Amino acid sequence: MRITSYNMRFGGKGRQQWSKIIENHDPDVILAQETYAPQEHLPPLFDGDLHQHAVWHPVAEQPWGSAVFVKSCIPRPISLPDFSGNVVGAEMEDWPWPDSPGSRLRIFSVHAPKRGDYQKAVNSILDMILDVADGCDVVIGGDFNLTVSERHSSEPLTTSAADRAIQLRLQEEFGLINCWQTANPDKRLTQTLRWTRDRETNFHCDGIFVPKSWAGRLLSCHVLAGTEWDDLSDHNPVAAEFQ
After folding, report:
1. Domain spanning 2-242, CATH architecture
2. Residue 123 is inside which H or E element, if any?
């Protein structure tokens, strides 16, 4: 199983991002941020029913928003009280994987807005997700606009105490693992954001978090990088693969 998280930047330049992700990586789950409605990118795919496999909602007064796409089934939208379009939730009933047939899985695609500061917004988003988790397994991924993994001691940048507290909260309060950190222990963080005004600084603000029970099945997690991605968005996709 493959999960990909990708901020497509203001709807997606040329609307090529969905096509490139699906054709080159074939994910089972896509967590998209700053995307137009998925069917606007790929109307012919899946016999024209791409929109049925995706839950998407725009940010207020914007043509783009966040989405959760599930290849194998039609997910049920989760009604959220806040952060409309910045956070989208979808539920899959009778989720057959990893070892719990009949279980329910709730997946959330997150694009943290700046409300006071990003840390405050992310904590509010996590409060909201806790309130609607409803006893399900939870997957959370997206663009958190803060450092989502612990930096190596050799890195020039450091992780703030507020960012570390959010990382710890995801681990202890939600029972989740950080896929990139788990698959790449003790490595320097890979850049996920090439900010337009600062393309060299190694920002690492995109991530995928899954239940601890999935840890033994995690095969890899890497950032899809290279010139082929550079023109499509200022973010790079994060891709996790499970056995």
Report:
1. 4-Layer Sandwich (3.60)
2. helix 118-132
